[in-house]
């Protein structure tokens, strides 16, 4: 209820603050019998971790996952999987610039108003550091989903936008560059652009596209828990996300029904896929694809005006080691949240029929 | 779990098929002591109902709500509010064209695959008729929220798009035209365009913008249940919705952090509002605004190719009385879902502090 | 959250007040494909309904269930089953004796304190009339469970207590007498005793024993949702219930481990069954059996002292047509709640393994 | 859903196996602003821990709680409180006697059937070691509840049963003896009896009585989530519990309504308290009191017959360091679960009224 739980049957409870001793989580409802490759979890954490390239934050945190339960002789037991990622980079640094004043477009102000006070160190609970727990859970979910393939990539940074549809791209190139854009030339442009932005002490937004393939027919629940509605919640719950669209998305608005409708082939597949693999909230077996819009990171390394707790105007200076553009590191987070949604519905679908 | 429940503390359970005896719902968790004006509920139902103008479906259904419980001497008692809306327009008509074949981009195929069979009459549970139950619950939520003002309007139909920001519009004009666009001139264009589309037997998509004002600070829960994430789920759960964005949305992607950040005024308000009234998933007291993208309605009154249950190609003819454009009637549905989200978080926020 | 929902995957939401227009409910999560015999539902309602014999309340209510959704061509569709039972016996009678004063050991006082006011007519939401909705949902659950056999019977009324263990009794005799005790001689004593109590204008408590047979191995979830823990909640949620015990129950306290342990047979069955069919919260395939203790009904047809809203002492006179002993009519309610618990866990168990 | 979560608003998620690296949990929904005394948590853990006296298991585990999140400058922040208790006593001992065969009346058999295999070391997830996590969460809940007083004590061991009603006892004597019975003379008898049982290599059951005082009026939700129903689930979810009764309990069955009804005093208190502080599922401000029946521990240090995985009869020898009687160590667990229930309802009650 307090917002730290995601999923109904395959469920993650997340905990931890940016500068506490550790962050962590509990994956509950993971079926028994999965041979869990812990290295794969660690691999996804590496894709998310700070310091991995020059275009991301230069903080150094190893982000090593420790699993405390739910595994026996290499297999999931059906009992909850508790895990920790220790925070190793908690400098006893000077937080005075954020302790008593509110950084614009951060959660500082609203946390203070909501809870009466806040753990201001590095953003506390509102820090995107929390998403490491999601990556762990998502990596477990991926191993449960097995045959389902989830690939996310950066399709836009600022005004630099891929024209290619996902089907024209080679997903094996995603990890070939620090931007995680499967179009090497565009990736190069994006990388340079992010470096320029970084030099300015500024930040820029971006879009991640995610494609889910080999999806069984029938996942998703009618009415409020339509598959794409839960995917939407999942993506919008990631820090800095401002928008979500699937299939034809916002562009579908300008289409006519006669154009937009996806005609069936005899095998139940469709000739076009404006539906984005989901009809009436339920998967039809076609690829699911969706876009997630990220705003520019709020921390800019510039001077800014704001207010303090007393409501007085103050001037502050942005500092720290932050991402000039969040999307390269957010790729595994988008994948993780997609995996969590699909894992949950993969269990729910088992209960639909006599 | 089966997708028919929305909300945690202020909760709607919805039931009913398009051509069953009735649809209905239960609102559970509505606080005691609200003087409930049932006419206001009926008024919102009128805004959603078929046959209200020439640009919507010409079906005639009175859509009268009957409340069975939870009210005593005009006030809510804190116990669940059960209600029905009888289906009065269930013609014993010929469904043979949809009984054995699958309408493209409808839920026919996936329901059959998921459940083994389906109530094919008028789309059954997947029909947008279900949203009438949401309008009832939302109208109750609005009366609980009282001081919070929720206004939705049509901001785009096909390529016809309002340039004006919501602050330049007069919400009192929304109901002055059948399109529900508060810009009379544009409304006129949209209306004519929809009529043209209708004559073609075709359909067209659109966008609804929703603005929530007078929102208290502190609504929304961290991490997975961020206010905008639940709003996103709520909107994406409405039939035909393909996308959701709030605040700067997809446009925010191209902005720099230094531009995008909303500078605080001494009273905690912000000079700009790219955040869309939500920071870190929690309301900051500024207006919440968001866009909801609707695809064109799948039912076109044209001949189309599809497959039947046996996987054989068949040709069918779209018929019935359907909406050429769904957005005019979807305005109260968007408001209802927004109200449900806000009501839920208005209760949750009471539990945050000692 | 507000207490009107039971079950996670197979779920009942109940609504309605004793003297409103109707009570009802929604069964959500019932799997598709069950050929539902509505007469069987009605049959269980008859077993619960007032006026069925001389030892129960003489109110006359037909208690006819009307189903509004979730059924198509005689089968469940996997969508929510909404139903109503109209209240036909709502006399516009004089409630002045309970409107402003609090009946001892009823919920009048606490409802007023909790909600600020209450629907005082016939107890409103706190009336046991609500259990009719449970009987409907339970009768649906029974048809899902099919091979599982649930039999409840009256094993004690006041001091009159059956010595026989359930295995010495013939369940086919349960419905042969108005007490619903499968021991005809004891049933006779109980019936006479209840008549005596009734003449005194008094009431008496009793115990219902319930036996569940043909249960698959593996139902129940570890830790907090142990099968017997949810059965306990289910039973204790029935009006007037004061205690629950399963297997060896309170008597098991005096046994030694060496006596109490159930030795396995080669087929996994056990030689004794002190475990009551549940070990570690999970069914082992043996019979589940448990006892439910009911206090005497609070409404006595005698004069009594109490207080009014102003906290002043008043004298009142019990009146109305109430049950001298609630257990005969509670038998189908106990069965219904057991069926709901088992149906829920029968779905959950499908999600345990890869 | 998988049974490891308890509570709706004040919620514990528990994880960990008896012989894994650690057990732990997450308390989510704890309100912000509580000055949390971690030593008090540790104190309750000491009351539960093995090796504390000669009548409990002689295992040695320090059971030290480590808190990882949700606390800042000594106060709860409103964010989830993640904690671990490391398992320090995991001997690499010989489990061959339980690896391939099933201990009678343990969860070995049902876990294997349910999940396909099990972590057999020390009972794995089904071990009562898990209850240490509950004690931590309960100790946090107690500090939230503050003015509410929860006292549990041993009222019966085998046939040795306290005749005194809780009001005749001095709760300050509970911790004065290893049995945790506030009647020193009876405590002495019980202690000797347990020692005798221990010498026999056998075990014996017992009853814990729990009393909750200074409870506000209005806690508890109608219908399915009645306060006593959730208390019942909470208690029955504790390992080895076979029965629960509150107020008059099973004895109330033999009373007449005219005797059982609790007459109101002008201040809303009642002259008697057969209701056990709960009417219609909602607290009336009187003391809540209830009994919890524990069966004898299944592990006896004797030879026993059982079956192995292949269904073959085998003979085994009970060994290890187990409790001859579980109730002395279960006292803080009962209190913890009561605290969790009350904390949850203390938050829910805030949402009842406009």
From TrEMBL, chains A, B, C, D:
Q: Name the InterPro entries for this protein.
A: Chorismate_synth (IPR000453), Chorismate_synth_AroC_sf (IPR035904), Chorismate_synthase_CS (IPR020541)
Question: What does the record note about the cofactor?
Answer: Reduced FMN (FMNH(2)).
Query: A Pfam family matched by this chain, by name?
Result: Chorismate_synt
Q: Return one Gene Ontology term, BP aspect.
A: amino acid biosynthetic process
GO terms for MF:
chorismate synthase activity; FMN binding
Q: Keyword NADP, does the record have it?
A: yes
From what organism does this protein derive? Answer: Flagellimonas ochracea
Origin, by domain of life?
A: Bacteria
Similarity field: Belongs to the chorismate synthase family.
Q: Give the matching NCBIfam families.
A: aroC, PRK05382.1
Per its record, how is this protein called by name?
Chorismate synthase
Q: Describe, as the record does, how this protein assembles with itself and its partners.
A: Homotetramer.
The UniProt catalytic activity note for this protein reads: 5-O-(1-carboxyvinyl)-3-phosphoshikimate = chorismate + phosphate
Cofactor(s) it depends on: FMNH2
Among PROSITE patterns, the record links this protein to:
CHORISMATE_SYNTHASE_1, CHORISMATE_SYNTHASE_2, CHORISMATE_SYNTHASE_3
Amino-acid positions noted as binding FMN in the UniProt annotation, renumbered to this chain: 125-127, 239-240, 280, 295-299, 321
Sorted alphabetically, which keywords does the UniProt record give?
Amino-acid biosynthesis, Aromatic amino acid biosynthesis, FAD, Flavoprotein, FMN, Lyase, NADP
Pathway(s) per entry: Metabolic intermediate biosynthesis; chorismate biosynthesis; chorismate from D-erythrose 4-phosphate and phosphoenolpyruvate: step 7/7
Protein task? This reaction introduces a second double bond into the aromatic ring system.
EC main group = lyase
Q: Where does NADP(+) bind?
A: 48, 54
Q: Identify one Gene Ontology CC term for this UniProt entry.
A: cytosol
Name the EC number(s): 4.2.3.5
């Amino acid at each position: 209820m307090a917002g730290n739980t995601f999923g109904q049957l395959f469920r993650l409870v997340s905990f931890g603050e940016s500068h506490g001793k550790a962050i962590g989580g509990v994956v509950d409802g993971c079926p028994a019998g999965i041979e869990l490759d812990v290295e794969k979890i660690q691999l996804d954490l590496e894709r998310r971790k700070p310091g991995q390239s020059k275009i991301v934050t230069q903080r150094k945190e190893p982000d090593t996952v420790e699993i405390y339960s739910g595994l026996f002789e290499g297999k999931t037991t059906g009992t909850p999987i508790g895990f920790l990622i220790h925070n190793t980079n908690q400098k006893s640094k000077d937080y005075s610039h954020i302790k008593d004043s509110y950084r614009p477009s951060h959660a500082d102000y609203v946390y203070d108003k909501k809870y009466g006070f806040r753990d201001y160190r590095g953003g506390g609970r509102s820090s995107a550091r929390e998403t490491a727990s999601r990556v762990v859970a998502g990596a477990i979910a991926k191993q449960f989903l097995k045959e389902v393939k989830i690939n996310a990539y950066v399709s836009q940074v600022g005004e630099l936008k891929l024209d290619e549809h996902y089907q024209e791209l080679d997903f094996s190139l995603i990890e070939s560059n620090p931007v995680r854009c499967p179009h090497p030339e565009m990736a190069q442009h994006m990388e340079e652009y992010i470096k320029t932005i970084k030099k300015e002490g500024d930040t820029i937004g971006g879009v991640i596209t995610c494609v889910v393939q080999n999806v069984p027919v029938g996942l998703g629940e009618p009415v409020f828990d339509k598959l794409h509605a839960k995917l939407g919640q999942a993506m919008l719950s990631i820090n800095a996300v401002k928008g979500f669209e699937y299939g034809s998305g916002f562009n579908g608005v300008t289409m006519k029904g006669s154009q937009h409708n996806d005609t069936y082939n005899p095998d139940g597949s469709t000739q076009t896929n404006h539906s984005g693999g989901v009809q009436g909230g339920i998967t039809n077996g076609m690829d699911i694809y969706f876009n997630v819009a990220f705003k520019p990171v709020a921390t800019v390394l510039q001077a800014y005006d704001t207010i303090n707790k007393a409501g007085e105007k103050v001037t502050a200076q942005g500092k720290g080691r932050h991402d000039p553009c969040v999307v390269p590191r957010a790729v595994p987070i988008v994948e993780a949240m997609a995996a969590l949604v699909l894992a949950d519905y993969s269990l729910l679908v088992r209960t639909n029929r006599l």
